[in-house]
Amino acid sequence: MTETDRVRPEVVDAIVAALTATDPAGLPEDATRAEKDAARDLFLTRTAAERAQRDRQSRAWELLLTRSYADPPTWAQLFDDLPPGSATELGELHDALPAGAQAEYDRRFGAPDQASGGGLPGRARRADLHGRR
Fold it and tell me: What angle do CA 47, 116, 58 make, to 5 degrees?
């Protein structure tokens, strides 16, 4: 491996930090082409992942906020007002839910099985199938 092919993780991290902060002063002057390419790939991957997570969070809020409230609602009120079918999708978005919504979801339906790809507990499936909460 030549010197220009070697990728130093600390240089890649410094480039990503400079890109994230939009601070060109943080760009290392001695970065190789391989390090710049690795940093670009890492930055774009993180940006896409953050965007996907924001999209998931937005969708979770769309499901939770089904109507207007005169006073700020509790998590229990938001879950009481869920339309049939929403529990399944909220289970799929469980990691994107705020902590309070995760706790209320878990209390009502049980925690989704994240190890097997986010499958829903039986109670959530049955609640959605029968239009009950």
Answer: 40
> Which residues neighbour 66 within 8 Å (Cβ) at sequence distance 6 or greater?
78, 81, 82, 83
Cα–Cα distance, 49 to 88 (Å, whole number): 23
Q: How would you class 127 by CB atoms within 10 Å of its CB: exposed for 0-12, middle for 13-18, buried for 19 or more? A: buried
Q: What is the pTM of this model?
A: 0.61
pLDDT tens for residues 14-58? 999 999 888 888 889 999 999 999 999 999 999 999 999 999 999
Q: How far apart are CA 5 and CA 128, in angstroms?
A: 54
